[in-house]
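FW: tagging you since you asked about this chain on Friday. Here's the raw sequence from the shared folder, copied in full. Didn't touch anything.
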Amino acid sequence: MKVLLINHFPLQGSGSGTYTRNIASALVQKGHEACIAMPENTAEYSLIDSIPTYPVFFTDENGKKPTADALDFNFPCFTTHPRSLQTFYDLNDEQLNAYIDAFASEVQKAIEEFKPDIIHAQHVWLLAWVAKNTGLPYVITSHGTDFIGYKKDERFRKYADEAAKDAKKIITISKDNTVLAKEILTDVENKTIQILNGYDPSIFYPSKTTKEEIFDEYNISPTKYMVLFSGKLTNFKGIDILLEAAKLYESEHPNEITTLLAGDGELLEELKAKAEELKLQNVHFLGFQQPSLLRKLYSATDVSVVPSRREPFGLVALEALACGSPVVATNQGGLPDIVNNEVGALVNVDDSIGLAQAIMAEIFNPDKDSKRFRATQYAVENFSQTKLIDGLIDIYHKVLEPL
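HL: got it, structure written out here
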């Protein structure tokens, strides 16, 4: 079977980009073929062995064009991306049409050269609409941010509605995501099917990295304990609440706990200012980190934190667990589908006191070593992409079955 995957984001730097990359790799491991159409703003973009790509090129944040025919704006996002602060809502009508036309052309090129049996589009959004217009059977995975966009900007609703109407299946990634799909989209009751995200076990697994090595790598004064956040620096991620929690545990355990923030986004300067205002002593902004470095960070940290206000799924929580890090997360969105008391803790949204208490409970947990082992085993047994891919392949086959 040949699957064309199309996504609004590059293969690194976003949850759906990682999802696309993981699916493509897992399909090839299962003996199928995959190719990917996605945006890029650099000629030095990430590749996957044996998987052809069809990039649509954009101009980067510094005004540099990777190719002569690159669109003269950066690739748009729902919130933010490490390589773009442009949002879909910033696009004027001319840019919106140019975006659609460029992807329609590249997708058609992929169809002519790769000859896919089926298209798997990411997000109930513009590129799912492009898939609809090819005439090929297609399925869509909703990643949750598409529904945020649907509510925010009316211009995009016609594309989402039409794409959902003709899709063979709409894959949701959490219970919360399924509820939103049925609330927002019409006539999809019998189309939705829930398949939780999976992580790539070839990238995320426990390493022997120590905290001392991490502190040395990033030139940070060492402390006894380490807390890690990984993700986009945007409002719904709740990093401001983590900073307020850090104030509490730094006050209670001065110079014992370091908090590392691995990520980038439009709130970077605002969050740095908040950390300064709170007089935090051991909070460090690391910027965007490649997966191989994230593996080391997850493996060395005492606890990973996902304080999102409403996380559609929470792939970073899975990746952290796979590396043996307990996870403290909020009890909203898709996170309760992943995190439980055996491998971490759930707290209320916007509750800095509860968050600080849960973080300290993990740090000083006398059962810490066995909990780390349970976290890895839990991720491997329940969320490895190499296991979850069978559910997607089954969907593809059913869509392609003759009536």
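FW: The chain has two domains: 2-198+385-400, 211-383.
HL: agreed, and The longest helix spans residues 93-114.
FW: great, closing this out.
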